[in-house]
Design goal:
By secondary structure, the protein is of the alpha+beta class. It has four domains: 5-65, Beta-grasp domain (Ubiquitin-like (UB roll), Roll), CATH 3.10.20.30; 74-243, Threonyl-trna Synthetase, Chain A, domain 2 (Threonyl-tRNA Synthetase, Chain A, domain 2), CATH 3.30.980; 267-536, BirA Bifunctional Protein, domain 2, CATH 3.30.930; 543-642, Rossmann fold (3-Layer(aba) Sandwich), CATH 3.40.50.800. The strands form nine sheets. It has an eight-stranded mixed β-sheet. α3 (69-90) packs across α4 and α13 packs across α14 (439-455). The radius of gyration is 30 Å and the shape is globular.
Length: 650
Amino acid sequence: MTAREIRVTLPDGSEKRLPAGATGADLARAIGPGLAKAAVAIRVDGQVWDLARALPDGMKVAVLTDKDPQALDVLRHSSAHVLATAVRQLFPHAKIGFGPPIEDGFYYDFAVPTPFTPEDLERIEAKMHEVVKADYPFVREEVNREEAKRRFTDDPLKLERIDDLGPNEVISVYTDGPFVDLCRGPHVASTGRVKHFKLLHAAGAYWRGDERRQMLQRIYGTAWFTKEDLEAYLRRLEEARKRDHRVLGKQLDLFSIQEDVGPGLIFWHPKGAMMQFQLRRFIEDVILERGYQLVYTPHVTREQLFLKSGHLPLYAENQFPPMAAGEGEAEDVRYRVKPMNCPMHILIYASQQRSYRDLPIRLAEIANVYRNERSGTLHGMLRVRGLTMDDAHLFLRPDQIEDEIFQLLDIVELVLGKTFGLSYRLDLATRPAKKLGSDATWDQAERALEEALKRRGLTYRTDQGGGAFYGPKIDVKFNDAIGREWQGATIQLDFALPERFQLEYAGEDNKPHRPVMIHRAIYGTLERFCGFLIEHFAGAFPLWLSPEQVRVLPIADTQLAAARAVQRRLAAAGLRAVVDERNETLNYKIRDGETHKVPYMAVVGQREADAGTVAVRLRGEGKKQVVLSVDAFVAKLQEEVRTRALTPLV
């Protein structure tokens, strides 16, 4: 190889020699014309670059096509720039913020005098198609700080961003046609590659997510490589809108958020509270059978407890401000509402001497905790400030870690897999930048989780840096009925807090030993899990979880006594049933029952009243009905509830 050549290693281990200065596009052409046409970007030693960047010598390089997930981020990033190009042409004085790719799409923030209207979005989208048709190349330049400030002298948001850049950070700008942006990239070769996109909506967004800063206007969009993928996504969006838990929550009278109290704080109405009750009872029954003990702990504590645990300062931004102490206490004593339960459960463990024979000790609490989430991130039940966690903390010997992880994975499968029929995957989340404890301790904890997953024969992904500050974790991600992914159970292994609190147990050798902790939640929070269930089932819950299981419908007042007798028989069998006694037509009552997604409607006419039967209509089955004796109907419903069946047994 001469000085005029470079050598790169391809993913299959083969080498390619190219002229010095060759770009990613040159590499794709050297491999083949098909790849040259399909190429979107390149990956150089793990970093994604533009095709037009010159390749360094001796690097591992992969050419990305539309088959690579990272390529979709590149397309969406470029779509955000096409959006900004169009906005600047229609609104020349708009100041520009950030425009990143996000899950399923992209956004760009703009400082404009008035919010964008739906009509504005139509005009912007039409202008974007003109930018795409113009096929402007994306041109990357590296500039020094002074040149960057000169180019963005009229854009204070960009100037602020430039001031934040480190002294040795490479500053790059991208140009496509008339638009220039401060940007790290990467981008597709030209605007013509951005063909299949749609603007979705606009919303207010604080600059840099800080509610103390100015309000910008954020335009959201989506972009895909094919028309078919775009259309499929838009159909999923429409289905998601129909399933929106905020809309269904109001329609079904499950919960509300009251302005007088504040955002992110959930009022569980009777029907929603019944759902929560059923979920709590289910998980408590499951864990009590497996050796857990229930505890209850205070909602507030002296601040020093969270200093000792490390939550202050590492978790301070998510905690509510301190409160003054009560009368009679020292003025410098301050209290905090708890954002999590682990320090409280640690104190229960430490309240008496423990032996190796006592372990594992499993303390569980379905508890209310409070986290000071930014108002702009709050979203119905899915992101709240008041959380109800099915929390537990397990104290165990190091030799018990694997068995305990196995039992927790069994609980996950029972609850998520078998009961709710969900498909899920596992992530192994490793040490974050801000953490407690030594690297050696983290190595030990990460290795223990990884070995448990491998010995169980499970596949998993690694989430680098995604662990809690006190330990690595296994996160469970599950999919809903329309394919969206949600965060579910978490299993966190902690060597740090037992050390900080000097926890001990007496070993078989009569010497003190340090226990290990596992923090775990199966639902996560009941707010988020119920919000998920509303959207997953579109409000049509399985019988065992439905707040109202049966609505008894007398055809006329003459059958009212018989209908009430049916309701009493159902209630005596532990089923939730009500009689619709309104002076309305049967068709009206049936439509109302369907609107409220009641699983079963039991119609009682004179024939049924005389025969001791009911004409049963299933939710969503139209006019189809089956006549059963009351005893048979009750027996089938009891079995459906007992087995927590996902489909009707009637």
